[in-house]
Each structure stands twice: as structure tokens, then as C-alpha cells.
Specification:
Elements: E1 5-11, H1 15-26, E2 33-39, E3 57-61, H2 67-77, E4 82-85, E5 91-92, H3 96-106, E6 110-113, E7 116-120, H4 127-138, H5 142-148, E8 161-163, H6 164-169, H7 180-190, E9 194-196, E10 201-206, H8 212-215, H9 221-236, E11 243-246, H10 250-259, E12 266-271, E13 280-281, E14 284-288, E15 299-302, H11 309-319, E16 328-330
Parallel strand pairs: 1-2, 1-4, 2-3, 6-9, 7-10, 11-12, 11-15, 12-14, 15-16
Antiparallel strand pairs: 4-8, 5-10, 6-8, 13-14
Length: 332
């Protein structure tokens, strides 16, 4: 069989969602693919109920436990020049593989291709999910993905599409104390790999209570922040410059605490809330944002995630001549 793209799908108790997910890959407009389904110790019988009449579907048992081990088991036998990730509860649109393949073929400098998504749920979506969807779908260019990588993971994991040499250089997914997909993209960034997305929606991303992201503590907000600060401290914080945290709320304080063991000093916090300005947090001064007019050297980590705040903060920083990524980064 002539295989250009190997799609790896880890499965643990895929239930009623599994067959539509598998069918969405086997029905792709790009035919030169294989689907490697890796059973991560399932016990619900869903894999056995899949049709056995398509030679492109390969079934394996994971060499370990957990989603990272399952993906890496599939990667080890994948024959494609490109490796795609797929989850067992989502729906790939018919031209997903074709669109992502064309994107990487047009952009020789991009190592990892993500995809735009439509989040759907049987119970409907809340405003937070819609804002998250809009942000994900706006983060398409390699430059924007790099700038906003520390807000959240800008590549939805079930849309990840790798050049073979890139995923092998990364040695597949690791098994850290935080989300394994975010860790992978942060490691890719640390190696200088570019990530991008084509314009069209390529995947319907199912939101439901049993998703791993809803049930595993590694996907809690504190774990995401631990991942951010770990890779920021290693790779993205400019050496020899003091740090200022914009936001003295819970995320700002957590960011301070995670940085406390690092080599660079946190000098203080910035706030717009009048009752916080002039006080102290974690023993450090809380300044008004106008403090940045006199401090031209410090690097600012923006730990503010309120709706609409990012645009206002960007405008303020631009008026001061500060460049996102060079003088400040969002970490919430």
C-alpha cells in the first residue's frame, strides 16, 4: 500500500464515538493514508466492533499505559512521510488531511501543522468555549503562534500533523506532570520548529465530560502554568533582565511562585485595580501600569486573562514602543 500520511489514533474506551472518528479518517479525500489505531488497555469492546474490511486500518496494542505511550507505539510502526494525530472522539472533516498536507508542502519552513476547529457538544457551548474556539482559529501564522504560545496551547492536539523528521526529533510525546500535547509544542518551540495552520476548519472537536482534559489532574490550570514557566525560564526569558508580572491576582501570584526558584528576580507587580496599587504581593511592590514609562529594561509577563484585557494591554504596550515577544509576553 502506498502510504504518504500515517494517522495515529490512541484509544482507551472510545465507546460510541469511536466508529464515527475512524470513519472520518477512512473517508478522507486524500487516499494515500493509513490509520494506526492503538488500543490503550480498553475494556469496552468498541474496537472489536469496528469493521474489518478496510486494509488501511491497522490495530495495535499499546506498549505501555497512557496516551503518550499509545501514540509512540503507533509512531514506531508508521510508514508515512507525514504523521497525523487523531483522537477517538472527534470528527475529521473530509479534506482535513489534504488541506494540512498542502499547507506543509507550500511552507517548507514549517515543521508542525495544526488546524482550525469547530467545538461541538450535545449540551451546547458556553461563551468561554466560543471565545477559545475563536482564539484557536485566529492563531494560524507561525509568528502569531510563537507569540501566543504561552497563553495556552494554540495547536488543538487532535489536529496535529507533523513532518516525520520533526516528530522523530522530538522523540514523540513525553509523559510530563502537565499536558503531554502542550509539552510537545513547547519543546518544538524550544528547538526552533515553526508551527502553522491552514485557513479552513479541518476538525469537529467534541466537548464532553469524559474527555481526558476534564478528568486528569495534569490538565488543571496550575499544571498548564507549571509547563509555561518551565519552558519560559529555559528558553524564552531574556537573560540579565528583571521580571515584572502584570496582574497581582491568583494567576499572577502563581506565576511569581513558580518563578521564585529561577535565576531571574521578579521585581514587582503591575495593577490597574486602585485598591491593590501601592500595596504588596508576595512581599513585592504593586505599581500602577504607568511604572513602565520609567522602567525601560524589565521584561513583563502579563498574567491577566480577563475578557477584552489583552487588546487593551497590547495597545498600552504599543504606545510605549514595546514589542510583544521582545519586551513582554502573555502567560494567561
Amino acid at each position: 500500500m502506498d502510504v504518504l500520511v500515517s494517522v495515529v489514533m490512541p484509544v482507551r474506551n472510545g465507546g460510541r464515538y469511536l466508529e464515527p472518528a475512524v470513519d472520518s479518517i477512512l473517508s478522507q479525500s486524500h487516499a494515500k493514508l493509513e490509520l494506526i489505531l492503538v488500543d490503550d488497555n480498553s475494556d469496552d469492546g468498541a474496537i472489536a466492533r469496528l469493521p474489518a474490511d478496510d486494509g488501511r486500518l491497522r490495530r495495535l496494542s499499546s506498549a505501555g499505559r497512557g496516551v503518550s505511550a499509545a501514540f509512540n507505539t503507533g509512531l514506531a510502526v508508521a510508514g508515512g512521510e507525514y504523521i497525523a494525530r487523531m483522537d477517538a472522539d472527534d470528527i475529521a472533516l473530509p479534506e482535513r488531511i489534504e488541506a494540512q498536507l498542502a499547507y506543509l508542502q507550500r511552507h517548507a519552513d514549517v515543521s508542525i501543522c495544526g488546524g482550525c476547529i469547530e467545538i461541538f457538544s450535545a449540551g451546547g457551548l458556553q461563551g468561554g468555549n466560543l471565545r477559545y474556539q475563536d482564539w484557536l482559529n485566529a492563531c494560524r501564522s507561525p509568528g502569531r503562534i510563537r507569540r501566543e504560545l504561552f497563553i495556552e496551547s494554540p495547536i488543538p492536539n487532535p489536529t496535529a500533523f507533523f513532518r516525520r523528521e520533526a516528530i522523530l526529533e522530538l522523540a514523540g510525546y513525553a509523559d510530563p506532570a502537565w499536558p503531554e500535547d502542550y509539552d510537545l509544542f513547547l519543546r518544538a518551540d524550544a528547538l526552533g520548529m515553526k508551527m502553522g495552520k491552514p485557513d479552513p476548519i479541518v476538525l469537529r472537536w467534541r466537548e464532553h465530560p469524559a474527555r481526558l482534559t476534564r478528568t486528569d489532574g495534569r490538565y488543571a490550570l496550575v499544571a498548564f502554568q507549571q509547563a509555561k514557566i518551565h519552558y519560559l525560564a529555559q528558553n524564552r526569558l531574556p537573560k540579565g533582565r528583571g521580571l515584572i508580572i502584570w496582574g497581582a491576582g491568583p494567576t499572577g501570584k502563581l506565576t511569581h511562585d513558580l518563578l521564585a526558584a529561577g535565576p531571574q528576580d521578579v521585581l514587582g507587580f503591575l495593577e490597574v485595580h486602585p485598591r491593590r496599587i501601592g500595596g504588596k504581593k508576595r512581599g513585592l511592590p504593586v505599581w500602577p501600569i504607568q511604572y513602565l514609562v520609567q522602567d525601560q529594561e524589565s521584561f513583563v509577563l502579563v498574567a491577566v486573562g480577563a475578557v477584552g484585557a489583552k487588546g487593551e494591554i497590547r495597545r498600552f504596550m504599543q504606545d510605549l514602543g514595546r514589542v510583544e515577544g521582545e519586551n513582554y509576553l502573555f502567560v494567561a
